[in-house]
Amino acid sequence: MKQEIAVNTNSKIKSSGICSKIIKTVKKDWAGWLMLAPCVLAFLIFSWQPIVTTIITSFYETTGFEVGKFVGLDNYISVVTDSHFITTVVNTFEYALWSFIFGCIPPIIIAVFLNEITFMKGYLRAAVYMPNMIPGVAIALMWTIMFDPSEGGLLNMLLGALGFETSMWLNDPDKVIELIVLTMAWRGIGSTVIIYIANLQGVNHDLYEAATLDGAGIFKRIRHVTLPHMSGLIKVMMLLNIINSFKIYDEPISMTGGGPSYASQTLTMLIQDYAFTYFRADKAAAVGVLLALLLGVFSIVYFKYNMSSEEGE
Amino acid sequence: MKTMKKLLCLVACIAIIAGVFAGCAQKNQNEGNADGKITISVNNWPKDTEKEKLATFNGYVEKLKEQHPNIELKTYTSGYSVESFFTDAASGQLTNLYYAPYTEAKKIIDAGFAKDITKWIKEYGYDTGVNPGIMKILVRDDKYYGVPFSSYNQGLMFNMNLLEAAGYVNEDGSPVVPDTYDELTEMAKAIKDKTGKAGFFMSTKGTEGGWQFMNLAWSFGVTFMEQVDGKWQAKFDSDEAVAAMQYFKDWKWKYDILPVNNLVNRDDMKKMFAADEVAMAYYTKDMVEQPILNYGMNKDDIGGGVIPAGPAGRYSQMGGGLWLVSPETTDEQVDAIFKWLEVKGDTPKFNDSVKASLEQSLSSEKESGLLVLPQPVPLWVSEERAESEKALYEQYKNYNPILWPMLNSSEDLILKEEPPMYAQELYAALSAVMQRMLTDENADPRAEMEKANAAFQKDYLDKLN
After folding, report:
1. Among B418, B425, B443, B104, which residue's Cα sits nearest to residue B262?
2. Dihedral, CA of residue B74, residue B79, residue B80 and residue B85, to nearest 10
3. Are residues A28 and A92 in the same domain?
4. Interface test with B, best of A143, A261, A282, A283 (most B CBs within 10 A)
5. Whether residue A153 is found in the same domain as residue A203
6. Taking CB atoms and an 8 Å cutoff, what residues of chain A touch B11?
7. Residue A312: its H or E element
8. What is the CATH number of domain B38-153+319-396?
9. Does B4 touch chain A (CB under 8 A)?
10. Nearest CA in chain B to A30
């Protein structure tokens, strides 16, 4: 009993110590803390409150958006055992894979190329970045027109003129994800290239000179000087690209609506369907939490690489 | 100086925090004014570009001011949107009176986004004055949750330019109307062969594919679900359902009468139809309006007829527009809403005022260059109203009767409502099967329908049982 009291007293002393420490810190520069308050408040209301509400909602049955009976893991079981959930998860990973292929390697090549060339540098940099300024849905609509599978479709006419067979493009379940990712990579490549180019400005030119004196050609210089310098950033950009690919929504919804036959459906589209088409906020929240967990894992890896790349620098 | 600085800082921060909270405050739709005025908000208001319609609606507002000076109207042009409805409803941002199509009524009521307005439905005579077949969409446990204001059933529309090019226009200028799906297939094939354009259009994207497939499936005798011993069972793996899906598949691979693009919806149809890329399609009112309004199609290049019959009969899905009341609306506002509906003419009562409103509406449709076609599905029970409406439609009709033989009606036509449970989910499942049929020549309709049926049973119906 005495011991318990002792523990309680200790913890009380400890917690009152923390409180007084906080009060002391705030008092020390209360104006500064007050200036921070709106941001903290906005952060709590607009970022954390929805996250917490979503997590709570996922464990309840809802009518509209009203939380009702506690159902434990039922919503999770229901969405995971849904006949199309696995297809959707596989699709989402496929988006990530193709995003890795289309969105990671080409920007490195373009950035190195743009860094090396001496003519039209400014124009080419602007041209590469240009698609990034167009909204995603507009890009999706533009590509949908170009991917028209009829013989009069723009790309099919080009194929025909070159003597190739026409394609069904987005109507082909085996190609649809690659094509959607390709359009996204075309749009997003500019910003990645700009980041790589900025990174390339930090390469020590003495290293290039030394390599040249040692007889290294352009490819050897890139391999032994440029790429090692970029490697940390490349890892980070690759991870960011993969994380973003898990959140794909605009392009598939406007280009294919998730079709043909769920072939381009993503987890974010599943959330949209549950919430807005079927009014099932509980299930939408459950898929949202699952997606967040998945992204959380990638984010941890991202921060790990980010830290190691910063340490490397 | 330092204290002054800190004070200023404090005031600025409080102002910012207050701003954050003010920004988060809910828009209050339940406005009761101190001067005794009742304000009601209404959506689906005509846009500035719809000049004639807007003038008509402004006329209604004037009439409201005359008859009920204590009622004020706040109008919004937004209509029903799948993307925004749920968030609007969940955050209390719905207008007091809001529009929704028939297909959305069930889920809106089930989600608690519509107010129980039984008291006023009875008081204003909607319970006995509306076609009971339509009114039942809005009833749950003997309570009423809305008011229907328009109704239609799906018919068949023709692009007269393509029909003419393919020789499917009679001597008197009327279109050849296919009586059965076999005749439609034959006609669509001939059009495709002669003009190179799609003979028939069916939506396949999202939930629209399944929604349109209903017409074809019912005409093959398909029952999508049944309650056996109190338990719901999915039934669209039947021979009839497989036959209907096979028939749809043949349109692509055997007859090649559909558009080349297999992922299309009604928006695509409107563009393609106006550009003479599609000869025939199922139609609803908006599908006839949009090619004229948005794509400059001549109204006399459009013809129409009744939906074809299949082996099990001639079936067409009903649809239309509903008015629902947001749950936050006060009783006072609901009463004002019903007065507004009377002024506007969306009421079972029929008097000079209602007649004038209807006349105004038809006249503006005619002035806009839209096709004024009679309402094929009777919405109001009152014979007086039905007769007077018929006479008004006759007066304002601007369609060429030769282009619209039989006007989407036939003695053997059976009107159907959408399936009773999880209709949207069913449509999505069927759209996926339809897409599979169109993208894979070797796809087996039976296997795909059995798979979809089992998934629908497991994912939805089993949870009800």
Report:
1. B443
2. -50
3. no
4. A261
5. yes
6. none
7. helix A281-312
8. 3.40.190.10
9. no
10. B6
Domain holding A83: CATH number? 1.10.3720.10
Residues A209 and A287 in one domain: yes
Q: Give the mutation candidate from B195, B435, B451, B456 for the A interface (greatest A CB count, under 10 A).
A: B435
Q: What is the DSSP letter of A240?
A: H
Question: Which of A45, A63, A277 minimises the CB distance to B207?
Answer: A277
* Structural domain boundaries, residue A272: 79-312
Q: How far is CA B186 from CA B166, B190, B303, in A?
A: 12, 6, 19
What total number of domains does chain A contain?
2
Q: Between A and B, how many CB-CB pairs are < 8 A?
A: 110
Chain B hits for A147, Cβ within 8 Å: none
- Put simply, whether the predicted model's pTM sits higher than 0.95 gets the answer no
CATH number for the domain formed by residue range(s) B155-318+409-463: 3.40.190.10
ipTM confidence score: 0.78
Min Cα distance A284 → chain B (Å) is 12
Indicate whether A19 and A144 sit together in one domain. no
Task: Out of A31, A172, A256, name the one closest to residue B9 (CB).
Answer: A31
Domains B38-153+319-396 and B155-318+409-463 in one fold = yes
On chain A, the residues whose CB falls within 8 A of the CB of B440 are: 173
- Report domain extents, chain B: 38-153+319-396, 155-318+409-463
Show the tokens assigned to A260.
């043909």
B 195-234 residues inside an 8 A Cβ radius of A: 204-207
Are residues A260 and B260, on separate chains, in Cβ contact within 8 Å? no
- pLDDT tens by residue, chain B, 465 residues: 566 666 666 676 677 666 656 655 555 455 555 567 899 999 999 998 888 889 889 999 999 999 999 999 999 999 898 878 988 998 889 999 999 999 889 889 999 999 999 999 999 999 999 989 899 999 999 999 999 998 888 999 999 999 999 999 999 999 999 999 999 999 999 999 999 999 999 999 989 999 999 999 999 999 999 999 889 999 999 999 999 999 999 999 999 999 999 999 999 999 999 999 999 999 887 788 889 888 989 999 999 999 999 999 999 998 889 999 999 999 999 999 999 999 998 998 888 878 888 888 888 888 888 888 877 778 888 787 888 888 888 888 888 889 998 666 778 999 898 888 888 889 999 999 999 999 999 999 999 999 999 999 999 999 887
Query: Are A243 and A267 within 8 A, CB to CB?
Result: no
Interchain pair B107, A278: CB under 8 A: yes
DSSP A22-57: HHHHHHHTHHHHHHHHHHHHHHIIIIIHHHHHHHHH
Q: Give me the residue from A42, A78, A277 closest to B424, CB to CB.
A: A277
**Looking at CA atoms only, how far is residue B46 from chain A in angstroms?**
25
Domain match, A151 and A196 both: yes
Q: Record the tokens describing residue B372, joined without a space.
A: 């004024």
Assess if residue A243 is contained within a domain. Answer: yes
What's the one-letter identity of residue B257? I
Domain membership of residue A63 (yes or no) is: no
Separation in Å, CA of B171 to nearest CA in chain A: 34
- Residue A273: its chain B contacts at CB < 8 A? 428
Look at B435 and A260 and tell me if their CB atoms are within 8 Å.
Answer: yes
Q: Would residue A105 count as lying in a domain?
A: yes
Query: Are residues A95 and A226 both part of a single domain?
Result: yes
Domain membership of residue A65 (yes or no) is no
Chain position carrying tokens 């297909």: B103
Whether residue B81 lies within 8 A of chain A, CB to CB, comes out as no
Which of B280-318 are b and which e, b meaning 16 or more Cβ less than 10 Å from the residue's Cβ?
bbbbbbebbbbbbbeeebebebbbbbbbbbbebebbbbb
